[in-house]
């Protein structure tokens, strides 16, 4: 009888051990977006959140060229904006910096002389050709296309 109770106790103890150790460490399959965002991205639309819905504005001035941002492999960042300057001559404004990424948050540190600041953007959607982000702490959105 003692032998049966020892085996029963050992069986129950082993059974509880297997059940409790089923999956103590859930999978941590976070996507690495750092290689996905590398490239030149042309602005398609900007948006604002109104009544919990994003209203997109695709009225982007193309008179002097399409504005774009660029995330380089070496972690440098460029924001190129084209505009019509004096006498209708097209000019560009280039803002440079460095970028880092953690999970879905891209942090950009602008390092140009006189323009030193940081901002973050959260990735909402990303494919091989489209990136949608929310500018951190604002109800402002960008939709860009990989060029």
Structure notes:
The protein has 147 residues and is mostly beta strands. The protein has one domain (39-146): Lipocalin (Beta Barrel), CATH 2.40.128. The protein has 1 helix and 9 strands; from the N terminus they run H-E-E-E-E-E-E-E-E-E. Strands 1-3-4-5-6-7-8-9 form an 8-stranded antiparallel β-barrel. Strand 5 and strand 6 form a beta hairpin. The longest helix has 19 residues, at 2-20. The radius of gyration is 26 Å and the shape is globular. The termini are far apart. Mean pLDDT is 82; it is low at 5-22.
Sequence-ordered SSE layout with sheet pairings:
Blueprint: H1 2-20, E1 39-50, E2 53-57, E3 68-71, E4 76-84, E5 90-102, E6 105-110, E7 117-126, E8 130-135, E9 140-146
Antiparallel strand pairs: 1-2, 1-3, 1-9, 3-4, 4-5, 5-6, 6-7, 7-8, 8-9
Order of helices and strands: HEEEEEEEEE
Q: DSSP helix count? A: 1
CATH architecture: Beta Barrel
Query: What is the third-level CATH name, the topology?
Result: Lipocalin
Please report the first level of CATH classification, the CATH class. Mainly Beta
Structural shape: globular
Proportion in helices: 10-25%
Kindly state the number of beta strands: 9
End-to-end CA span: 78 Å
- Class computed from helices, strands and strand pairing: mainly beta
Output the keywords.
147 residues, mainly beta, Lipocalin, eight-stranded antiparallel beta barrel, 1 helix, 9 strands, 13% helix, 49% strand, globular
């Amino acid at each position: 009888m003692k032998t049966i109770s020892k085996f029963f106790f050992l069986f129950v103890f082993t059974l509880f051990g297997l059940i409790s150790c089923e999956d103590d460490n859930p999978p941590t399959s976070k996507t690495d977006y750092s290689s996905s965002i590398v490239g030149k991205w042309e602005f398609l639309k900007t948006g604002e959140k109104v009544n919990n819905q994003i209203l997109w504005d695709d009225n982007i001035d193309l008179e002097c060229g399409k504005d774009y941002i660029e995330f380089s492999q070496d972690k440098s960042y460029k924001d190129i904006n084209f505009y019509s300057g004096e006498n209708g001559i097209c000019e560009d404004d280039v803002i440079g910096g460095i970028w880092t990424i953690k999970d879905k948050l891209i942090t950009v540190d602008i390092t140009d002389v006189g323009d030193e600041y940081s901002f973050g953007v959260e990735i909402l959607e990303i494919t091989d050709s489209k990136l949608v982000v929310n500018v951190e702490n604002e109800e402002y959105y960008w939709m860009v296309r990989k060029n």
